Amino acid sequence: MAMDTLYDYQIWQPEEHEDDVNVTISNSHLLPCDCFLFHLHFRHVLQSNHPQELQRLLNSSLSSFLIPCDAFFASGFSILIAVFSDTGVAQDFLDAAVPDVLSVAADIACNPLNAGRRVLPLAVSVLAVSPYNEREEIGRVLRESSPQAFKTSPASESAIEGLKTVEIDVGGELLIGECRICLDELMNGMEVTRLPCAHLYHRDCIVKWLETSHLCPLCRYAMPLS
Locate the RING-type domain: which residues (predicted)? Predict the structure, then answer.
């Protein structure tokens, strides 16, 4: 996603009549603990300067996750990074939005109107807008069409050795997503490697990748060159 992408986001407790986040949990009284039902609606659009096409939708997704409240408040930052990992949002967005999500979640949990509820709905809507500049796009296409464009440079050994290993800890049996290199699932309790851009991979997968390319497979974040 472009570095100059602008983000607009909203966080709220959805009402039952909101059809776009109308996901219910049957037999919620049988859950072992109180949980957030977290809805993420993500849209990425291209802002064009052409008068006939002001915006073009590049990506849109609606996902829902059942997350135990205790785990959410104990490890909320890492949980939200994992939830947002497939969207490719920038670190600046995470730094701004994650504390706001945690704050709204705390308000929802403390709201007397929610007393006795086992499942607390929490919705986040994100709109990412990337500007389109025709002259820059033409230059990019010309650069990428040259023979040199297909040559990749590996990341430095020190950068690879310095990669952080983290354990996915969200409580309960929850599928986080998949390693976008091998496409195998990333599960709760699994040790994974996190790049500085916050995207998660199996360590063997990302090490082999960075030995040939210094760019994150998802967002093209640039690791230090060898």
Answer: 179-220
User: How do residues 57-84 score in pLDDT, each as one tens digit?
Assistant: 778 888 888 889 998 998 888 889 888 8
- The pTM for the full model equals 0.56
Delineate the domains of the chain, giving CATH numbers in brackets.
6-131 (no CATH), 152-226 (3.30.40.10)
- Non-local CB neighbours of 94 within 8 Å, separated by 6+ positions: 80, 81, 84, 198
Backbone φ and ψ of 144, nearest 5°: -75, -20
**The two structure tokens encoding residue 58:** 């590049």
What's the pLDDT tens digit per position in 39-56?
A: 999 998 877 665 555 667
* % helix, strand, coil for the chain, step of 5: 35, 30, 35
What is the Cα–Cα distance from 33 to 29, expressed in whole angstroms? 9
User: What are the distances in angstroms from CA 178 to CA 3, 58, 131, 141, 163?
Assistant: 24, 21, 29, 30, 19
CA dist 154 to 46, 103, 150, Å? Answer: 30, 40, 13
Asked if residue 143 has pLDDT above 50, the reply is no
How many helices (H) and strands (E) are present in the chain, helices listed first? Answer: 6, 9
Q: Given pLDDT bands bounded at 50, 70 and 90, which one contains residue 151?
A: low
SS3 call for 169:
coil
Cα separation of 155 and 149, whole Å? 17
